[in-house]
Automatic annotation (TrEMBL):
This is Mis18-binding protein 1. The lineage of its organism: Eukaryota, Metazoa, Chordata, Craniata, Vertebrata. Residues 4-89 form the SANTA domain. GO terms for cellular component: chromosome, centromeric region. PANTHER family: MIS18-BINDING PROTEIN 1.
Length: 99
């Protein structure tokens, strides 16, 4: 299974505030800005699986500067990657956005 390595990564909300994807610079494509399909599973703190079946390896910490518009509390929860409670955090975050 091929994995995609992203640097300067961040969490991006997909249309309709129903799911999130990861976005960042792809190491194998000369830092092309790339985003995944919806994140469905957390394999490790720095590895997520998406609806397309791809595995994304997140290098380094979240790019909080590019996410300044989002709530600080939300970004802080993902500073070092995805935690075991990531789904809970995302659900809460998306719900707030839908209001």
């Amino acid at each position: 299974q091929k994995s995609v390595c992203l640097t300067s990564w961040r969490i991006k909300v997909l249309d309709g505030n129903t799911a999130i994807c990861v976005e960042g610079k792809r190491k194998d494509m000369k830092s092309l800005l790339w985003h995944s399909t919806a994140v469905t599973e957390c394999i490790a703190r720095n590895q997520v699986k998406t609806t397309s079946g791809s595995i994304y390896v997140l290098q380094g910490n979240i790019d909080s500067a590019s996410m300044r518009k989002e709530a600080y509390r939300f970004i802080k929860r993902f500073t070092y990657g995805f935690s075991k409670k990531w789904k809970e955090y995302i659900e809460e975050f998306l719900e707030e956005r839908r209001r």
